């Protein structure tokens, strides 16, 4: 009976605690105090009496928000003041306030800090740094009293601890409006824009600005009185001659983006969504859940949705890709986001060719042409030997079809079977003109992934009564440089056939001058057979050789004569001088090294596979746009990483030069 009473009493206590919020909650937001509500005249009087006449508004505001943003420090400061036992405890200065004074001084700088002193009273010129800090600490202590940021009353009795100060009362009134102040049409001669939105039609929306949510934000548009173009914050709407509707000119530098009927976001939010998608392989559902759990308070009624996240991703990436290509996306006005996605890929996708990689060239994917191979004495010279495998072991004998022809070629020392791409390089620079001759490699591979698509030809006229599951695209073929820069991609249906591979290469490299010196693909021997059988070898003979990666070559060279003879990725016998280099290790020993990274595409596809579960659920148009955007971002990231590495090497080289010259130069440490 007693246990039952105790149990019931415990339940009652817990119920009361939960009801009145006495127990902690993981999702609860901290209780905040209101912003100090003092008269401006009192605040202005304090500033004029305690600071110099040259003090600026920005300096005063920095001091004000430094005090309101550090309630815990003010609590510690006040507690130590009271504990001192002095009658004038409220005027005493503690180490807490002194530390805040030092932080504010460092933030302001010497010039702005000097404006805080009264020349006749403080006499800062005759004071040490420690004395100046004490003077400032006394001023800030007085200001905290004026602002009523005190946990104790005048008698030293604790009222309650200061809580975080809410900035709700001082949030700015934001207005979403066009960023341009005049019409951009040439015939309008910079006509000023009039407001196009009357008061009763002004729409009020929710704006996500960084991590803050602003409600009831008015959206205004402007209009040109001459051409009647309408200007919004994220696009311009104009009448196209010969078109019944209006066209939208998407602004690449728009400050805000409309992602819903009543929802706008700034570019910080849209960039964060893009970065989360790229860096975390996140789906729209995952980003939506993260955003609502992280940034929405219990008092907030707004919840961002997956459609908002998806639209923000599409609109942000459309602008990034358009800006990089030096153009603007122009579409019909008022179309759905699905149509925007499809049209954006048609306009900016360039059939899967990544625009950021068009002019890329670096030391990892492009080397100067060598006519003579680097060799190490007493190394294996078998043409089937491969660097990294056969330096210290015998090369396996060929045992596949045509073995008699193979032995006959070896006996005759037939150099025509050697991999002599380096001696026929019409796509290289012209040595007679003094240009540097370059050798370029691209790597190609496929990853099994793709969206479902309709297998029925809409124009066939055939009617079907029964349908099974829609087929998927077989794979995505990616083409990249050895450094990791993505050049192009394409969806393959049903199979990764040599016909599709050759057609893909011809689309990316339509002219002999554009063709690379080497194409590395795990099906190079099959592709080479196909090209020869189709009579297309003359198109490639003078410019390109097809090689396989080392893993495929090791497993294939004993059974495939073409692969063994023509597709060696790094021959040991020097028949391909531009595929092998000689390096020196830390002990001074020489060793062979492959000139190019033939695993780059496999590494790319391993990363791309992290998006497979997300991409496979998309429609074809959404899949095309998303994978193109991701590969565009990846290329930008690789290029930016190379530039940082190059800059770091330049700085290190400069430091070494200074050390050798005996010059001592002060530099800020890189954070």
Commentary on this structure:
- The protein is α+β, with helices and mostly antiparallel strands.
- It has 3 domains: about 40-165, no CATH class; about 170-350, no CATH class; about 365-455 and about 470-615 and about 620-650, no CATH class.
- Helix content is about 35%, strand content about 15%.
- It contains 20 helices and 18 strands.
- It is extended and about 105 Å long.
- The two termini are about 65 Å apart.
Count of discrete alpha- or pi-helical segments spanning 4 or more residues: 20
Low-confidence stretches: 5-28, 411-421, 423-427, 663-671
Q: Which class do the helix and strand fractions yield? A: alpha+beta
The oligomerization state is: single chain
Please indicate the count of domains: 3
Helix content range of the residues, please?
A: 25-40%
Strand order of the biggest β-sheet: 1-4-5-6-7-10
| End-to-end gap | 67 Å
Global geometry: extended
Please tell me how large the radius of gyration is. 35 Å
The number of strands is: 18
Mean pLDDT: 85
- As a percent range, the share of strand residues is 5-15%
Major pleated sheet: 6 strands, antiparallel
């Amino acid at each position: 009976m007693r246990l039952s009473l105790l149990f019931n009493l415990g339940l009652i206590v817990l119920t009361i605690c939960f009801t009145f919020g006495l127990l902690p909650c993981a999702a609860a937001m901290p209780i905040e105090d209101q912003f100090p509500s003092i008269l401006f005249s009192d605040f202005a009087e304090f500033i004029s009496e305690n600071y110099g006449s040259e003090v600026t508004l920005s300096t005063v505001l920095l001091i004000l928000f430094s005090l309101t943003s550090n309630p815990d420090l003010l609590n510690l400061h006040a507690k130590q003041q009271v504990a001192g036992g002095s009658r004038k405890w409220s005027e005493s200065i503690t180490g807490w306030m002194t530390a805040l004074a030092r932080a504010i001084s460092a933030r302001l700088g010497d010039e702005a800090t000097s404006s805080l002193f009264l020349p006749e009273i403080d006499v800062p010129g005759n004071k040490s740094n420690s004395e100046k800090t004490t003077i400032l600490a006394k001023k800030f202590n007085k200001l905290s009293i004026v602002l009523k940021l005190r946990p104790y009353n005048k008698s030293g009795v604790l009222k309650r601890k200061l809580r975080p100060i809410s900035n709700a009362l001082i949030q700015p009134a934001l207005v979403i409006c066009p960023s341009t102040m005049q019409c951009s049409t040439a015939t309008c001669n910079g006509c000023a824009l009039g407001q196009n939105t009357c008061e009763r039609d002004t729409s009020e929306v929710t704006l996500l600005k960084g991590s803050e949510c602003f409600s009831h934000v008015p959206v205004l548009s402007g209009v040109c009185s001459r051409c009647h173009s309408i200007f919004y914050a994220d696009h311009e709407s104009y009448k196209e001659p010969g078109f019944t509707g209006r066209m939208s000119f998407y602004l690449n530098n728009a400050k805000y983006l409309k992602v819903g009927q009543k929802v706008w976001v700034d570019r910080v939010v849209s960039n964060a969504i893009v970065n989360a998608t790229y860096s975390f392989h996140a789906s729209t559902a995952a980003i939506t859940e993260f955003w609502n759990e992280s940034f929405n308070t219990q008092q907030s009624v707004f919840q961002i949705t997956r459609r908002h996240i998806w639209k923000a991703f599409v609109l942000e990436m459309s602008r990034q890709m358009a800006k990089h290509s030096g153009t603007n996306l122009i579409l019909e006005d008022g179309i759905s986001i699905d149509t925007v996605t499809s049209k954006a890929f048609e306009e900016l996708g360039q059939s899967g060719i990544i625009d950021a990689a068009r002019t890329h060239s670096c030391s990892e994917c492009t080397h100067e042409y060598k006519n003579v191979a680097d060799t190490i004495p007493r190394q294996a010279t078998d043409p089937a030997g491969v660097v990294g495998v056969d330096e210290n072991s015998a090369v396996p004998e060929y045992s596949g079809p045509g073995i008699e022809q193979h032995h006959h070629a070896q006996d005759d020392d037939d150099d025509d079977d050697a991999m002599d791409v380096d001696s026929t390089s019409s796509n290289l620079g012209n040595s007679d003109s003094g240009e540097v001759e370059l050798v370029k490699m691209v790597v190609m591979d496929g990853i099994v992934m793709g969206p479902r698509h309709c297998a029925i030809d809409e124009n066939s006229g055939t009617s079907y009564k029964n349908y099974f599951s829609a087929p998927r695209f077989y794979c995505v073929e990616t083409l990249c440089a050895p450094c990791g820069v993505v050049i192009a991609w394409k969806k393959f249906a049903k199979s990764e056939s040599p016909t599709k591979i050759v057609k893909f290469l011809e689309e990316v490299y339509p002219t002999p001058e554009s063709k690379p010196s080497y194409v590395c693909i795990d099906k190079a021997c099959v592709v080479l057979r196909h090209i020869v059988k189709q009579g297309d070898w003359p198109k490639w003979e003078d410019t390109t050789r097809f090689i396989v990666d080392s893993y495929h070559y090791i497993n294939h060279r004993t059974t495939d004569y073409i692969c063994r003879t023509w597709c060696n990725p790094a021959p040991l016998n020097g028949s391909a001088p531009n595929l092998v280099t000689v390096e020196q290790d830390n002990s001074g020993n020489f060793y062979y090294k492959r000139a190019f990274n033939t695993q780059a595409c496999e590494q790319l596809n391993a990363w791309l596979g992290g998006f497979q579960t997300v991409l496979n659920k998309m429609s074809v148009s959404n899949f095309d746009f998303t994978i193109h955007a991701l590969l565009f971002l990846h290329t930008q990231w690789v290029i930016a990483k190379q530039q940082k590495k190059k800059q770091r090497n330049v700085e290190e080289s400069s430091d070494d030069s200074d050390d050798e010259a005996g010059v001592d130069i002060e530099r800020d440490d890189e954070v």
